[in-house]
Amino acid sequence: MVMTSTQAGTGPAVIGRMEEFEHEEVLFCQDRTTGLKAIIAIHDTTLGPALGGTRMWPYDQEGDALSDVLRLSRGMTYKSALAGLDLGGGKAVIIGDARTQKTEAMFRRFGWFVHSLSGRYITAEDVGMSTTEMVNIRKETPYVAGLPENMGGSGDPSPVTAYGVFCGMRAAARTAFGSESLAGRKISVQGAGNVGMHLVGHLVKDGARVFLTDIHDDKLAMIAKTHPGITLVGPDEVYDLDVDIYSPCALGATINDDTLGRLKCAVIAGAANNQLADEAVHGRAVMEKGILYAPDFLINAGGIINCAWERKGYDRGAAMAQTERIFDTALGIFKRSTTEHVPTYLAANEAAEHRVRSMRQAGLHF
Ligand code: NAD
């Protein structure tokens, strides 16, 4: 059963929330046989089809899932716009436990829903997903990226994302410290996952002093074995460290009322999406505290750049070269923030909105 919010009688609450940030379409999907409960949000397709991953998470409330997908899909519009991609912003969430509830049938059914959008939305991996699910979705629709290399895909995007975060962090270092070199800089990395692991490799190579945390000791042990010089710290200790740079690479909303007073860093630059618990409140608060915040969607665009190259014929070298441009884009955003006395998140939002608006005004709509 397919319902768009405008047809479904889901009430003004949903449409009102769509109006707030001008989302184009929200598709609610359920299938009792496979247990699928999903929401696909298309924020903006001015620049191209809305590409963004699917997240599987056991949300307590349906409203939480809706909030997440609306915020994440808008972030994708901004991410692709700033990265210079001809892609719009979309995202999907599946309500469920990724460890116990994933089945082939569920993901094929989900692929069927993605296909019903006729290419306006293209999915990929996000939290809780792997290439296995993308392969199952591909059985029902061609509108999927992040496929394995043996299927002509680009494989795991995390190394490319990590490289982009590294480039963005170097731009932030140049702005804050006068040099992009991270040699000797004390950097805390929160999250020893796919991105964190690759990021640590770049930081160590550049001569940084790395402090790493995760909630899973086995992941920490694995990275410490490869990089014996790093220091492992506890998950809560990370907010109190006396470091130059804090790099959130785990979950969102780690910059909040509780942590802001504890952070001693001069720069925040990491991979996690939606790091600011409340964009307007905490985006301004970091600036007032004298911290240079590298907007997440600006510097974690490596993954979407990789997916974009997969769609037009994968070329790893070209994807890495385009990802490297995050350095210059970030420098421009930091400069604008300083010149105009606006928080970096706002400078980045405005630059993204400007690109979308100017294409729309020129009639260059996807
Ligand atoms: P991942 O699931 O591989 O790694 C996340 C890690 O964070 C895990 O090891 C987990 O144990 C750890 N973690 C969870 N809660 C924690 C906590 N409270 N303290 C410390 N560690 C904690 O995910 P990933 O692919 O490495 O992505 C990391 C972040 O970057 C996510 O927010 C993701 O949305 C974002 N991101 C990833 C990509 C990509 O290409 N993978 C692209 C853009 C954005």
Q: What does the model show?
A:
The protein is of the alpha/beta class. The chain folds into 2 domains: 2-13 and 23-74 and 88-148, 3-Layer(aba) Sandwich (Rossmann fold), CATH 3.40.50.10860; 158-301 and 328-352, NAD(P)-binding Rossmann-like Domain (Rossmann fold, 3-Layer(aba) Sandwich). It is 46% helix and 15% strand. It has 15 helices and 13 strands. It has helices spanning 5-8, 12-20, 62-82, 104-116, 131-138, 158-177, 194-205, 217-226, 257-260, 279-288, 296-299, 302-312, 316-324, 326-340, 344-361; strands spanning 2-4, 25-31, 36-44, 50-51, 54-57, 88-95, 121-122, 186-190, 209-213, 231-232, 245-248, 267-268, 292-293. Strands 1, 2, 3, 4, 5, 6 and 7 form a 7-stranded mixed β-sheet that branches. A 6-stranded parallel β-sheet has the order 10-9-8-11-12-13, with helices on both faces. Strand 8, helix 7 (194-205) and strand 9 (209-213) form a beta-alpha-beta unit. Residues 1-12 have low confidence and may be disordered. The chain binds nicotinamide-adenine-dinucleotide.
Structural class estimated from helices and strands = alpha/beta
The low-confidence parts are: 1-12
Integer average pLDDT: 94
Strand fraction band?
15-25%
CATH-defined architecture of the largest domain: 3-Layer(aba) Sandwich
Order of helices and strands: EHHEEEEHEHEHHEHEHEEHEHEHHHHH
Here the CATH topology of the largest domain equals: Rossmann fold
Number of strand segments: 13
Please state the CA-atom Rg, rounded to the nearest Å.
20 Å
Terminal residue distance: 27 Å
Per DSSP, the total helix count is 15
The shape, in one word, is globular
Which bin fits the share of residues in helices? 40-55%
Hetero compounds: nicotinamide-adenine-dinucleotide
- Biggest sheet statistics: 7 strands, mixed
CATH class of the largest domain: Alpha Beta
Number of domains: 2
Write the CATH homologous superfamily of the largest domain: NAD(P)-binding Rossmann-like Domain
